Amino acid sequence: SQQGEEDPQALSIQEGENATMNCSYKTSINNLQWYRQNSGRGLVHLILIRSNEREKHSGRLRVTLDTSKKSSSLLITASRAADTASYFCATDAFENAGNMLTFGGGTRLMVKP
Amino acid sequence: EPEVTQTPSHQVTQMGQEVILRCVPISNHLYFYWYRQILGQKVEFLVSFYNNEISEKSEIFDDQFSVERPDGSNFTLKIRSTKLEDSAMYFCASGLYRGNEQFFGPGTRLTVL
Fold first, then answer.
1. How many Cα atoms are found within 13 Å in the side-chain-facing hemisphere of A90?
2. How does pLDDT run across A1-31, given as a tens digit for each residue?
3. Hey, which residues 92-111 in chain A have their CB within 8 Å of chain B?
4. Which tens digit of pLDDT belongs to each residue from B49-78?
5. Is A42 in contact with B33 (Cβ distance < 8 A)?
6. Do B95 and A99 touch (CB under 8 A)?
7. Helix or strand or coil: residue B84?
8. Residues 6+ apart with CB under 8 A from B91
C-alpha cells in the first residue's frame, strides 16, 4: 500500500455509535494530520499528532499514533449525522524538505440518523 | 476565525488556455502550498513555497505550472497551457511554521474543455 492508506474505505454506523478509522504509512514521519471533507468541498483540518506523541484528543475526536507499526487511528465518539463525510490522514514525511503532505484514499463515513 | 480563501470557486477554460488560480492564505502564515484532487482520486501535492521561493515540488508540477506571491497577501498558481487532464479541484493551503498544521482553502474546481 502507499503512504497514508486508510481502512476501512467505507463505514456506515448509526448515530450515537463510535467510528474508528485507521491509517497506515510507510516512511518515518514528522507528523500525521487528519482532515474531513464533505462531498465536493474543502478539507477541514481536524487534528495533528507529532511523531513523539502517542495520543491526542479534541472534543469527540481521539487520535492515536504508533510509530513502531507506522499506523494511526481516528476515533469519533457519539457520532452525529453531521459527521457524515470522508476522512483522510496525511503524513508529513521526515525526508521531505518542503513539508508536503501525502494523503491517503480516505474513509467514507456515513452516520445514519 | 481566520481562513484561507480561494477564487474563483469554479473556472472553466479551453484546452491550451492559461489560467491563474488565486489564494489568500491566513495572514500571518509563512508557508504556502498547492494541492490538487482529481475527481474520485487522492489529494496530491503540487508545490510548497516559503520565503518567496519554491521549497519542494512534485513530478506533477512541471514547466507548465508556476507559483507567485505577487504581494503580501495573494498566492497564485498559474497553468500556462491547460490540458484536459488538468481538470481537478485545486486547493491552496497555508501554515504558520514548518511542520505545523496546514489549513486548506475551499478549493477551485478547474474544468478544462
1. 30
2. 345 688 899 999 999 999 999 999 999 999 9
3. 92, 96-106
4. 999 999 999 999 999 999 999 887 899 999
5. no
6. yes
7. helix
8. A42, A43, B6, B34, B35, B36, B37, B43, B104, B105, B107
